[in-house]
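Appendix B. Extra example for self-study. Work through it before the problem class; the solution is given directly after the inputs so you can check yourself.
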Amino acid sequence: MARSGGHRGGFEPAPFDVVEASRRVWERHWEPEAASGMAVFTAILRSYQLLADEVERVMRSHDLTFARYEVLTWLMTDPESSLTLSWISKTLRIPPATVTNIIDRLEQDKLIRRVAHPSDARTTLAVITTRGRRVASAATEDLNGTVYEQIGLSEPQRRELTDLLAQLRVSGNEFDVERSDAVVEEVGRRNKGVG
Amino acid sequence: MARSGGHRGGFEPAPFDVVEASRRVWERHWEPEAASGMAVFTAILRSYQLLADEVERVMRSHDLTFARYEVLTWLMTDPESSLTLSWISKTLRIPPATVTNIIDRLEQDKLIRRVAHPSDARTTLAVITTRGRRVASAATEDLNGTVYEQIGLSEPQRRELTDLLAQLRVSGNEFDVERSDAVVEEVGRRNKGVG
DNA sequence: GACGATTGCTACGAAGCCGAAGTAATGTCC
DNA sequence: GGACATTACTTCGGCTTCGTAGCAATCGTC
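Solution. Structure tokens for the complete assembly:
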């Protein structure tokens, strides 16, 4: 569902605010909770499309897709520089078949290597290469400057927004709330090999 | 970028909160604005995936995709029950080739008909059929009850969230701010043929 | 009213995504 | 230790998306 368009170059704004327009229609015909929920989904959809267009444009200029970039980044932050394909599938919530596809491509491009797991012959490890680190770092710097730092919200507003979305994700069981804090702390502690 | 998974049935939560985990990594290595912007994008992405999975599951049970449903809904709310393909492309920000594809499929399924524009021979109108109205209404009721009303946020929080995302979209020029209000008012005024 | 630019749509083809089925290794239970 | 279930990954095939190029109609300009 990643439609084209984009911010600078080749982008056309929609003629009006589709979120508010459809909110009016919904408020007239259905329950208030349905109208506000529809508005939330539509607003998230259009915000996602807006940002994803910009992100994908940056990725294309580095010969990546966002999915491949995401995998590279997690590989960079790992202390061993390696992750199992199943971990990638579970954490990034990418179906196994898609992970295979992504890893195939990253390997073709020599950004990672596939390595057999030392103790479990079923398992494959992806290991990032030097070239992979270079590409991921360059893409990150570009992304930070071109997209992330340019989002039109103040720091408190950004925090407010991510907090609201966190609550939405918790209520939708998007991640394991029980065990999350410990893992996040652990990720925060290590810092090897990034940047 | 519409990955699978889903809420009820075949869904597995991620092992931890990817947004907060990567925020820690970013805060350690890059500018604060890059970290908060990354968190905003990632939170929007994962919220979108969460909701879109549920939405697409509902759509599948009505033999629709969300894109096809969106077009049907806008056709329902139109006073003439018809829209030009170019209007659909601009408003929903779907590339022309994709609109052709969507309209092809809706026509195959007899949910819309293609009709020549009365005065401009270049232009094609999509007109919703009775069957199309039935399908769209059923899908909407299902969607309202199954997804939109179930989002885990209070009414004030929903408003706060859509307001923040509106500001993000305005700053990214997602829609024509100048002319939007007038159109939204006009959409709100008419109510023919919905529900 | 003629000609170049623009607009509206479609055909084609490449790429990404993912459900389902298949293969192989490991784990579990008695 | 044998049988069955589970886990990890890949292969296959179908679907959606969308960039590009093309065609036809219309508009703008002189």
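Self-check: The radius of gyration of chain A is 20 Å. If your reasoning did not lead you there, revisit section 3.
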